[in-house]
Amino acid sequence: MESLDTLLIPVIAAVLGYLLGSVPFAVVVSKLFGLADPRSHGSGNPGATNVLRTGNKAAAILTLIGDAAKGWLAMFIAQKVGAGETAAGIAGLAAFLGHVYPFTLGFKGGKGVATALGVMLGFSSSLAGFALLIWLSVAVITRYSSLAALVAAFAAPFAAWFMIGKLAVALPITIMSSVLILRHKSNIEKLFAGTESRIGSGKKVAQKA
Length: 209
What we know:
This protein has ten helices and no strands. The chain has one domain. The model has no long low-confidence stretch (mean pLDDT about 90). By secondary structure, the chain is mainly alpha-helical.
């Protein structure tokens, strides 16, 4: 019975995390604010960056908080019900994958930057703070949101290992970082081509009539 419980806990954590991650905050918030579907403009991704392109900063911030919170919440719930660090990490990773590949949007989700940050916060506030500092530094210097996300994603696994030193933490963060980088393939191509848009340079998208 104990071995069955040991097997079920990570499975339940994964299912819980994926369901939470599949909540499309960008789409929900846009509807609440009467904005255009974030998938209809910009990169076509349901994320805070596309919501920001409407010019509604409040909606974008709310989307950012929601996307980050679901990564953290999945881990928080897992820990509260007695799941260990490994199961909690699985819950966080599943939430990230749920955001990137949500069943609610036909498995076509966002790039996962905010949700990954929420998962890192679930592991360690210092780790999340380090990743956020890198993102902010690169974003301020270059004004490329995508480049900031890529640099932070590349650095996160190394930071996780040196700051925490546990495989149960470093492995899920490495997987998240790898997926996040792959999801930015088109941005990488645009960066090399010099056609990537900078923060604040995009045109506002009209609200729904």
